[in-house]
Design brief:
4 iron, 4 sulfur cluster binding, DNA-binding, Rossmann fold, alpha/beta, iron-sulfur, globular, seven-stranded parallel beta sheet, metal ion binding, Fumarase C, Chain B, domain 1, 3 domains
Length: 551
């Protein structure tokens, strides 16, 4: 196994830190070899590793390193019931699946040797013929595996973590793209809106259940607003939608009947009664607050302490890694990691770039400051994007602060090929679009495109230009204010500015990272907002020599 210079230089430091119960933070850019390094150092400390990623698509790079460099290690992976079950549609909530009534509720002794996606498809094909459950068979394989691949919920959601019956102290746990842990509690948020209730009504059979849901729909519509920002709903107003124990029991009986009928008919679709019930179950937790957001009620935790507390267990070995990790003081104060930490920024240690390069340009005649988001400003931004499009070598990624402003700008983009992110956009959609010619890919900060895509050919990025349309500060809404207030109370200092700036910085770095996927990549980063012309932004983005431009 050949190591890069940085890997050889810091390997022993990381191994010693893990052995001495330090939580290791590893910041290194995409394409620098983090995955291989993390596996190598972790397996030097313990015989078993759990590799935790954000999405199932991120299993493959880990499998690739294992199959190339660690062929003696047995690997296993786990996906959710809704993905593993042979009778489900993709939108089913795993908690809605009634396994006890399934004729395939058996475990088979399966071997996992192929890539995760291929292995899962094979299991699902074989399970019907041989009469076993892919999910529980995969669950059984993790007991004997040396390296286990999981997604975030299996580590950070306590009830799901406990369901695995794993002794976590036996493993080194690697968390990839770990900058995402800041908002990890969002995995557990629950939504309720008119559409969900109407679909629950269509599934309900008894008139009693339908009447309960009709009243709920009528009262809910008085509490929600169309704004795409979180507006706190006070407890007095929530009383109007509160369901009694008897009403919850009535809905639960209907819900259980639907679950059993679906598995009996071998056709599992989303059970909307379950969505209603789980919303009200979450409200029982006093740490949960309810907000109106885009015509929905959203029940969510204000801070993530209950979800990240496992990181503070000094009996468990952790390595958190990302190319855009938050600063150490932010991880301690805002996120709440209070154990011993070794923070390693590889490029600072090596005093050089480990991967591709980019040139920065700062536009001095545009801004997305909310009070100036006019149609005239949108036209100017469109002119910049057209200029970038016609002068770029490859495809362009443009990241916006909001869907609203993205739609406003897109009205003035004529005669060019572009794709706008929406709730249904997939990586397959993007790849299909870019195959047809040069494309302007437009996404939202902290969305699936700005963090979740890799468009490459032979290892080289197909994105040559990244346009950051404005500064993607998180919206200063009731959720952010409440979160800042709670953290500030604990720390006895105001953290609002830090909370906003670091989230924006992480979003910008993630967007830039879409264009730098290997040491051979070169990109142009267009910082389209005059507010980037500050020492803080230029220093944090390694853009001290940025060129200033105007239309």
């Amino acid at each position: 196994m050949e190591f890069r210079e940085w890997q050889s230089k810091i390997a022993e430091k990381v191994i010693d830190a893990l052995r001495n119960n330090f939580l290791v933070i590893l910041q290194a850019p995409t394409g620098s070899g983090k995955t291989l390094f993390a596996l190598y150092t972790s397996l030097k400390v313990k015989q078993k590793v759990i590799f935790v990623v954000r999405t199932h698509n991120e299993f493959f790079p880990v499998y690739r390193e294992l199959s190339t460099h660690f062929r003696d290690k047995r690997y296993a992976f786990l996906v959710g019931k809704s993905l593993a079950c042979v009778y489900t549609s993709s939108d089913v909530d795993p908690q809605d699946i009634y396994c006890g009534g399934c004729e395939l509720f058996n475990v088979a002794d399966v071997k996992i040797n192929d890539p995760p996606k291929i292995s899962l498809n094979k299991l699902k094909d074989e399970s019907k013929k041989l009469g076993f459950c892919p999910y529980y068979s995969l669950l059984e394989t993790i007991k004997s595996a040396d390296v286990i691949l999981l997604t975030y919920p299996y580590l950070f959601m306590p009830w799901l973590r406990n369901s695995l019956d794993i002794n976590w102290e036996d493993y080194v746990i690697i968390v990839d793209e770990a900058h995402n842990i800041e908002n990890i509690s969002n995995m557990e948020e629950k939504r309720l809106n008119k559409k969900i209730i109407e679909l629950a009504i269509s599934q309900a059979k008894s008139q009693n259940a339908k009447s309960i849901l009709e009243r709920l729909k009528e009262n809910l519509e008085k509490l929600v607003y169309s704004d795409d920002r979180y507006i706190l709903v006070d407890n007095d107003k929530l009383a109007s939608i509160t369901l009694s124990d008897d009403e919850i029991d009535t809905l639960t009986e209907e819900y259980e009947d639907i679950r059993k009928d679906m598995i009996k008919n071998k056709s599992l679709t989303k059970n909307y009664l379950g969505s209603v019930i789980r919303f009200f179950e979450l409200l029982k937790d006093e740490k949960v607050r309810v907000f109106s957001y885009s015509n929905s009620l959203v029940a969510k935790y204000v801070i993530s302490s209950d979800f990240i507390n496992i990181l503070n267990d000094e009996k468990i070995s952790f390595m958190l890694m990302s190319g855009t990790m938050q600063p150490l003081n932010y991880l301690r104060d805002i996120i709440g990691i209070n154990r011993k930490i070794v923070y390693i920024d590889v490029e600072k240690i090596m005093r050089s770039r480990l991967t591709g390069t980019y040139e920065c340009l700062i536009s001095m005649d545009v801004t997305t400051t909310y009070s100036l988001r006019s149609e005239q400003m949108a036209r100017k931004y469109a002119s910049y994007l057209l200029k970038i499009f016609y002068n770029s070598n490859k495809h362009i990624l443009a990241i916006f602060p909001s869907y609203e402003f993205m739609h406003m700008v897109s009205k003035f983009l004529n005669n060019i090929g572009y794709l706008k992110e929406d709730s249904e956009t997939s990586i397959e959609d993007i790849i299909d679009k870019v195959k047809k010619g040069k494309t302007l890919i437009m996404g939202i900060a902290r969305g699936k495109i700005s963090e979740g895509i890799e468009i490459v050919e032979n290892g080289i990025s197909l994105i040559s230009d990244v346009a950051i349309v404005g500064i993607p500060y998180p919206p200063i809404d009731d959720y952010l204010k409440l979160r800042a207030s709670e953290i500030s109370k604990v720390l006895k200092k105001d953290v609002s500015d830090e909370l906003i700036r670091i989230q924006a910085l992480t979003a910008v770095k993630q967007a830039i990272g879409r264009s730098i996927r290997s040491p051979r990549d070169k990109a142009i980063v267009w910082l389209l907002d005059k507010r980037y012309d500050s020492l803080w932004w230029k220093k944090e983005l390694n853009c001290l020599n940025a060129r200033k431009i105007k239309l």
